[in-house]
Amino acid sequence: MEFSAQQIAAFVQGEIVGDANVTVNSFAKIEEGKPGSITFLSNPKYEHFIYGTEASIVLVNRDFIPEKPIKATLIKVDNAYETLAKLMTLYEQSKTQSKGIASTAIIAESAQIGKDVYIGAYAVIDEGVVIGDNTQIYPHTYVGKNARIGEGSLIYSGVNIYHDCQIGNHVTLHSGVVIGADGFGFAPTPEGYNKIPQIGNVIIEDNVEIGANTCVDRATMGSTIVHKGVKLDNLIQIAHNDEIGANTVIAAQSGLAGSAKMGEWCVIAGQVGISGHLTIGNHVTLGPQSGIISSIPDGKTMIGSLPMEDKAFFKMQAIMRRLPDMYRELNALRKELDELKDKTH
């Protein structure tokens, strides 16, 4: 599909600087822009690329003032990054969706399949499953007994949704995601570890996206809950009876131990580890590789492998860079002190 600068500006309520009739049919990074593509500039560090980009249209913030002539047509908007995301969403929605049920799919007679659902080759839909309208389930996916998937959800190939789990509307599960595997529950005995049955389930609310090979374990009792709007990256572990608050984002290789509670609008960087039975407040930010061993109140920013508040962490880092000089000064002071002691004896 092809759109003119004038059409795009009307859609995003932007101001055109340049040729309003130029057209685009693809997206590109600003440093890789080609004729017929649209790109954006929001980070000043990339401004030098705008003067040489071959992209036909560049989205920029309204306060952007170029220092040199620019070949591309500019569309000034309130927030170039958010506007690009909106346009890319529109582009994705314009693509034709797969529909129909593959002949090799296995669907139990008791399953309820909504309208305009796509079920790909070799997918298995077990007894009592309910799938909402316009949901797409790609090949080699398994949906266990009595599981429910809402409307407009996108389940990529190789996803496993265990029995009794509930997936909301407009949820995206990428390849390799496992929803509802047993929680890590074992009771030690003199002979070894006895497995504790995990009889709960997992609830994934609306508008959640979960990255490839991430696992959300079922609860021992009750539910492991991922609330609406949560975004989980690849390779994340959410343990049994955890609860992730609405609109929280968690980056790759992070993990929460059992019965941890995380608030809303948290930002969790990569490789963060959170101990079990802790409560993380709302609007908390955790830096990469933080190891969390105690609960955190609302609004805190913590960073470091032994996490501390961000101001204290950066102060410590500044001091560490001075340690060699401080060490030399300390040795010099010790030498002077020893000389003074010798003179007084």
* Number of separate helices: 5
Provide the number of structural domains: 3
Q: What's the mean pLDDT score?
A: 95
If strands are numbered along the chain, what order do they take across the biggest sheet?
A: 8-11-14-17-20-25-28-31-34-37-39-40
Walk me through what this model shows:
There is one protein chain. The protein has 345 residues and is an alpha/beta fold. It folds into 3 domains: 3-94, Udp-n-acetylmuramoylalanyl-d-glutamate--2,6- Diaminopimelate Ligase, Chain: A, domain 1 (3-Layer(aba) Sandwich), CATH 3.40.1390; 101-310, UDP N-Acetylglucosamine Acyltransferase, domain 1; 319-344. Helices cover 18% and strands 29% of the residues. It has 5 helices and 40 strands. The strands form 6 sheets. The protein has a 12-stranded mixed beta sheet. A 10-stranded parallel beta sheet has the order 9-12-15-18-21-26-29-32-35-38, with no helix packed on it. Strands 10-13-16-19-24-27-30-33-36 form a 9-stranded parallel beta sheet, with no helix packed on it. Helix 2 links the parallel strand 5 and strand 6 (57-61). The mean pLDDT is 95.
